[in-house]
Write a structure and sequence with these properties.
Strand order of the largest sheet: 2-4-3
Number of domains: 2
CATH class of the largest domain: Mainly Alpha
Oligomer: single chain
Order of helices and strands: EEEEEHHHHHHEE
Structural class: alpha+beta
Largest sheet: 3 strands, antiparallel
CATH architecture of the largest domain: Orthogonal Bundle
CATH topology of the largest domain: Helicase, Ruva Protein, domain 3
Strand content: 15-25%
Radius of gyration: 19 Å
Length: 219
Amino acid sequence: MVHIYSHNQLYGVWKTAKRGHFPKTNRSLRLALHTKQKSALLYSASDIAVYDQSELVQHPFLSKIGPDILNSELRWKVVAERLQHSRFCNRGLSALYLDQHFIAGIGNYLRTEILFAAGVHPDFKPKQLDSKKIESLARQTLIIGKRAYDTKGHTLLPTLSDKLAKTKGSYESVRFMAFNREGLPCRHCVQPIVKAKRNGRRIYWCESCQPTVSLGIKV
């Protein structure tokens, strides 16, 4: 068995097509995988490598990567266990939720949306959360990840998404609960959404729904 690793950064993109039918694009085709009927095409990726199993287990990054957020067999209890593990429990959530060694597949907007859905401030550490908050955060990690995948990047609550779809707003205006909504009213409580930088990346939260002191925080 061989394993293909690609680092897409912000530019690489996978496309699928019928075999022999290539999408019209100005992007550079870097990798093509074919079956008898379909093709998976990788464009614009900056780094591609192929490893066999023995090389994979010795790779300094890939051998330590965390479980895939979209793995259908991943359960919230596993995420909760990782949150409480000595390796991760003393790290700020804003940093932890970008660390692919913790959970693979979480990017910047998912970090904001998961923490917002769980009602947890990004500056807390897992060890400061009680068991109910740990469970909520673990569950929302998987719920938001799957929702974003199923909806091609939308993280709104389904009922709210249906309601906002009727307003015919812009793509970005009906996509997120908190991310990229600085100064706009929280969709839960109308408190203005706050923007800051954590770990060199922008992050958003609601100071009312994600307070620095709450019943879910050990003090």
